[in-house]
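User: Modeling request: complex.
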Amino acid sequence: MRNEILDYFRKANGEFVSGQQISKDLHVSRTAIWKHINILKERGYIFESSTRKGYRLIYAPNLLTPLEIEGALHTDTFGRHVVYMESTQSTNEEAKKIAREGAEEGTIVVAEEQTTGHGRLTRGFYSPFAKGIWFSLILRPKFFPMEAAKCTLLAAIGVCRGIRRLGLTDAGIKWPNDILYHGKKLVGILTEMSASMEKIDYIVIGIGINTGMKKNEFPEDFRKGATSFLNEGIDVSRKDLLAAILYELEKEYAIAQNEGFDKVLEDWKTLSVTIGQEVRVIMGDESYTGKAIDIDKDGCLLVDTGKGINRVLAGDVSIRPVGAPLPKR
Ligand code: BT5
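Assistant: Request completed. Predicted assembly structure:
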């Protein structure tokens, strides 16, 4: 409802709107509207109120609204259609829903906040209000479903390049779905797909980038292993970062569509921080160590255990540097 209320104020272009009118048009009580306006105020919106004329939006904080994004974009299709929400459970869930309803390729779903953002399996993804870029991109590629896993690699390339352009030049890709900065997680990527045996219906690539959190704002259980642009000394413009990432993603996607994945895999290797590292591979209760030596043509990680080469499929596998503590269960 808050999205609708905000939209209502935006359309009013800074003019006063009466509580009674909003209540009538949006079919909600005036008390509910008052509560939502108070929450918006806490989030940095400034309203002027008048007992006679109602409310007027006079300042909206630095947000990722479609208008803001459009002004920064230099892509052909990616991000040209934006579904914007102030708050949602998960942009991936929203993107899957509109993809099922026929949303076009390149559409993005962006939220200022996710209340139940998620990672792989049942893991959560912390996505506080306006302190990161939480978005999902819808693709409808021509390649076969078995190639879809490589979309995570493709996405990581685009995101990593965009991040480097905006100042974190040491950012690198940790196989398969994280971007790290000096060993700390800056980005998580989650790819989901709907397909039949031979054809992909849609792919949703969900990307979460930490921009504005200070160190002590991260939840304690992963605080040590996480970072953000601000935490690394850069007060990044979210819209410029999103625009740079969409530009790089569109470019890499065109390569995958037109030339196949070979070039994508090569690009990935140049940005990887995993290859050449001693790693611990954790699958459920089991784990082993070895040296990550390469990825193969399917995007699987090749780990030399000393006794042979193991081929590691993305899925529920955690990769950690040897010596790092094991995750809590
Ligand atoms: C991921 O999962 O890292 C994929 C995250 C994808 C998030 C995006 S945001 C937009 C879209 N909508 C969604 O609902 N999801 C996508 P995984 O590899 O399973 O890692 C999850 C783990 O990362 C958690 O268990 C925490 O330990 C840690 N974590 C959670 N939030 C984090 C954050 N903001 N920054 C760094 N680490 C985080």
